[in-house]
Amino acid sequence: xxxxxxxxxxxxxxxxxxxxxxxxxxxxxxxxxxxxxxxxxxxxxxxxxxxxxxxxxxxxxxxxxxxxxxxxxxxxxxxxxxxxxxxxxxxxxxxxxxxxxxxxxxxxxxxxxxxxxxxxxxxxxxxxxxxxxxxxxxxxxxxxxxxxxxxxxxx
Length: 155
Hints:
The protein is mainly beta and 155 residues long. The chain has 2 helices and 9 strands.
């Protein structure tokens, strides 16, 4: 069963911008954001994806992702809970890893997080100086939760 091992962090500053390898715009919505599973539709770079994720246990969860025709993904997004998430993902190289820095827009504007995918829970990695507090376990930062309680509404 495919597993995703991911850790998520807030950012201390924007010096990560000096090491950006690429960036792309992502539009995504949730057909199901139940606490035990999510079903996500994503459109990025003229491609569509359908992703099913299990509930996280620590930094690990099951993940099944399938490329689907972009026109179908665009139609499926119309069926998703609102608001629809909009963000720009920047791939940033640091040491031996690629970090994904997401800069959110619209209802989640102002939120910027960095994620690193690992091969095992105990894999070591160097933390860049632009990385701040870890929020892997804080469900408010789950993309699926940003639909029901967008960052702009946080007190």
